[in-house]
Amino acid sequence: MASEHNQLSRFLLVLAIVLFRYVTSDINDGNFAGNNFNRLDTEALYHLSQDQFPETYNYAPLHPVENHLWQSPENLGEISGVAVDPSGNPVIFHRGDRTWNYETFNDNAEYQEKYKGPIRNDTVLTLDPKTGDIIRGWGNHTFYLPHGIHIDNLGNIWLTDIALHQVFKYSASGIPRLILGQRFEPGNDMEHFCQPTSVAVLPNGEIVVADGYCNNRIMLFDKRGNPKYSIGEHWISLRIPHALTILPNRQVCIADRENLRIVCLDVISSGLNRNPESPYSIRHRQFGRIFGVTSYRGFIYAVNGMTSKNIQIKGFTIDPINRNVTEIWGPESLPFTMPHAIAACPYGTALYVSEIGPNKIWKFDLLQT
Ligand SMILES: *[C@@H]1O[C@H](CO)[C@@H](O)[C@H](O)[C@H]1NC(C)=O
Ligand SMILES: *[C@@H]1O[C@H](CO)[C@@H](O)[C@H](O)[C@H]1NC(C)=O
Ligand SMILES: *[C@@H]1O[C@H](CO)[C@@H](O)[C@H](O)[C@H]1NC(C)=O
């Protein structure tokens, strides 16, 4: 009870401050007046190094071209997530024999298919970046409904499971290190998620979670997993934050799926009043529902999904500084069907797009334009 009371007063305090400060702001203008959410502690005031986080980038966006030598592995479930490890190997998170249908959750977002037990197959698979062959796999008998995968700079693997309502950190070799959220318990306080979709780790180790299908909020945790902020519905009005990516200037960009836009915000310098331009939205008439976002050297690469007849399913290259689309691209052999996630190789040589029906993974080479 005491901790619930604390949570509530903390939430009300943040809400009051946020409302007071931003009552006149409107993200649909693509801009916010004033500074951003209030910080509750000073732990995040780490030293900001210019070298580590260049404020401006002088790079050109790269041009994705389908790699025809790559072959997506066969007999996989829905490939809900893709990431690339520090060696440049793509790693996918797939659903084995499970799908998300009308019986999967009840109206309270509680998972209804526990009786099936966890997915028996390996759900986390490392692929050969040249051929697409499976190099190794793990994560059998653990997950129920995989969603997001992220690999941080140290090679740790972060996963979200929307049935378990949890976020997992594993070492590069697949040893569990941290679990956030309560097993099978949806909720909207700082200890619970509700169908969390995606994780991203800031250069200082802080953990950003997109939570998710029901709560429409972004949560920040310190590197040990202690909750710091919840940036929520009342402020940036997200509608299914589906994927996250982090730019070199530490801004977190969100695939705000049902709002047909990408939102970027600065979770650290916002609190230092350093960035009156954060958050901002990026929109384009061809976007439709943005499912996946990734970035390389300050440019965002995104994929959309089924939206309406006149919106094509494509990839987009986005310049977040000018907030415009520099290229619309896609595979040459066949069109995309249901893309779900996208990830760039840390060396900028390749881009991977996963699909959830047909279940496949595409490789694109990233070429200089
Ligand atoms: C599960 O693993 C078995 C044995 O390796 C394989 O035959 C099957 O295709 C896999 N199924 C899925 C859906 O991943
Ligand atoms: C998962 O797979 C490994 C290797 O294939 C196997 O040794 C282990 O018993 C499996 N785990 C369970 C719980 O079945
Ligand atoms: C993006 O915006 C910048 C600055 O307004 C402009 O110079 C550039 O030509 C634009 N690019 C495209 C592809 O529209």
What's the short story on this structure?
The chain has helices at 2-22, 233-236; strands at residues 63-66, 79-84, 90-94, 124-127, 134-138, 146-151, 157-161, 166-170, 176-180, 196-201, 207-211, 217-221, 227-231, 241-246, 252-256, 261-265, 280-282, 289-296, 299-305, 315-319, 324-329, 339-344, 350-356, 359-367. It is mostly beta strands.
Question: Can you characterise this structure?
Answer:
By secondary structure, the protein is mostly beta strands. The protein has one domain (26-367): TolB, C-terminal domain (Neuraminidase). It contains 2 helices and 24 strands. The chain has helices spanning 2-22, 233-236, and strands spanning 63-66, 79-84, 90-94, 124-127, 134-138, 146-151, 157-161, 166-170, 176-180, 196-201, 207-211, 217-221, 227-231, 241-246, 252-256, 261-265, 280-282, 289-296, 299-305, 315-319, 324-329, 339-344, 350-356, 359-367. The chain starts with a helix and ends with a strand. Bound molecules: 2-acetamido-2-deoxy-beta-D-glucopyranose (NAG) (3 copies). One 2-acetamido-2-deoxy-beta-D-glucopyranose binds next to loops.
User: Pairing-aware structural class of the strands and helices?
Assistant: mainly beta
Q: Uncertain regions: pLDDT < 50 for 5+ in a row?
A: 12-55
Oligomer type:
single chain
Distance between the termini: 59 Å
Topology readout:
Elements: H1 2-22, E1 63-66, E2 79-84, E3 90-94, E4 124-127, E5 134-138, E6 146-151, E7 157-161, E8 166-170, E9 176-180, E10 196-201, E11 207-211, E12 217-221, E13 227-231, H2 233-236, E14 241-246, E15 252-256, E16 261-265, E17 280-282, E18 289-296, E19 299-305, E20 315-319, E21 324-329, E22 339-344, E23 350-356, E24 359-367
Antiparallel strand pairs: 1-24, 2-3, 3-4, 4-5, 6-7, 7-8, 8-9, 10-11, 11-12, 12-13, 14-15, 15-16, 16-17, 18-19, 19-20, 20-21, 22-23, 23-24
One 2-acetamido-2-deoxy-beta-D-glucopyranose binds next to loops.
Binding site for Ca(2+): 82
Pfam family, one: NHL
GO biological process, one term: peptide metabolic process
